[in-house]
Specification:
Blueprint (H helix, E strand, L loop, with lengths): L2 H8 L5 E3 L4 H11 L3 E5 L5 E6 H7 L9 H4 L1 E2 L6 E2 L4 H11 L3 E6 L2 E7 H26 L2
Parallel strand pairs: 1-2, 5-6
Antiparallel strand pairs: 2-3, 3-4, 6-7
Helix pairs in contact: 5-6
Length: 144
């Protein structure tokens, strides 16, 4: 299974926040959209980074209430990405190797979605379950 197959199942809606938005705006979007990461856009709608719940938690103290998303995001040049034609196993390796929980998905130079480690684990487990069920069915069919 490839990343593009996962996006077809889960959808490829991409949630964003402006780089100059207060951190509270990002937190509200996390809660409203039930997501753990947002792509960060500048005034020209270009992607400049990614901000995650983890970024917010790491900065959580009294001093961060006046900070903007730009001050806590991971800048674009440091974002770990995946491509729609990569396998889910390759995506899982990136999660593990880079210790990240979200990967923007690219088609050439365009972001077409965002997958989380939970999305990939769920899809991999479903694939394993399908193989197991298929093998059991063929064993039952062969025994008759």
């Amino acid at each position: 299974m490839q990343v593009q197959d996962l996006l077809k199942e889960k959808g490829n809606e991409l949630y964003t926040v402006r780089e100059d938005a207060p951190i509270q705006d990002a937190v509200q979007l996390f809660n409203l959209r039930r997501v753990g990461a947002l792509m960060v856009l500048n005034a020209s709608d270009a992607v400049v980074g990614i901000v995650s719940e983890r970024d917010v938690l790491q900065q959580l103290d009294a001093a961060c209430t006046n900070e903007t998303v730009m001050q806590i995001m991971t800048p674009k040049e440091r974002i770990v990405v995946t491509h729609e034609h990569e396998s889910l196993e390759d995506a899982m390796a990136k999660f593990t190797r880079h210790r990240v929980r979200h990967l923007p998905v690219y088609r050439e130079q365009e972001i077409v979605g965002l997958v989380s480690i939970g999305d990939v684990v769920k899809a991999l487990l479903a694939g394993e379950r399908y193989v197991k069920d298929s093998l059991l069915q063929s064993l039952k069919g062969g025994a008759q």
